Amino acid sequence: MKIKLLMMSMIILSMGLTACGNGNKQQNDAQTTPAQADPQKVYQNFCISCHGNQLQGGEGPNIQKVGERLTEDEIIKRIQKGGGGMPPFQVALKEEELKVLAAWLAGLK
Ligand code: HEC
């Protein structure tokens, strides 16, 4: 009787573990697509070294009012392709990060 009980609880336990495992996997999947990237964080990580902590420029040009000159699409292309001394970020940035970053910059007027 005792052994049967033990086996039952082991079965239940292992079922519980597999269910848990699936739950974790789903959680991990959800984490790879964050709700919203923070454009200023992305900027700090990838752009600040050349465009400055106030977007005032340095090695790269001042982009404080880049939204007056370039549309969101143009900014996306600029970041993806680089050029003229700016490296391309197509690979380094997630699509989500690229989008929010470009939208933020395009709004600076
Ligand atoms: C290694 C230095 C460097 C880094 C890092 C860098 N840039 Fe640049 N960026 C430049 C240079 C230099 C130019 C000017 C290129 C030219 O004259 O065509 C430029 C140009 C630009 C322009 C066009 C400005 C205009 O008025 O036409 C935008 C927008 C821009 N960068 C955004 C970014 C963003 C966003 C990041 C981060 C993802 C970034 N840059 C990272 C050096 C850099």
Automatic annotation (TrEMBL):
One of its GO terms (molecular function) is electron transfer activity. This is C-type cytochrome. Residues 34-109 form the Cytochrome c domain. Binds 1 heme c group covalently per subunit. Residues 1-19 form the signal peptide. Coiled coil: none annotated. PANTHER family: CYTOCHROME C-553-LIKE, MENAQUINOL-CYTOCHROME C REDUCTASE CYTOCHROME B_C SUBUNIT. It holds the Pfam family Cytochrome_CBB3. Heme c binds at C47, C50, H51, M86. It comes from the Bacteria. Keywords: Electron transport, Heme, Iron, Metal-binding, Signal, Transport. SUPFAM superfamilies: Cytochrome c. InterPro entries: Cyt_c-like_dom, Cyt_c-like_dom_sf, Cyt_c_BACSU-c550-type, Cytochrome_c550/c551-like. One of its GO terms (cellular component) is membrane. PROSITE patterns: CYTC, PROKAR_LIPOPROTEIN.
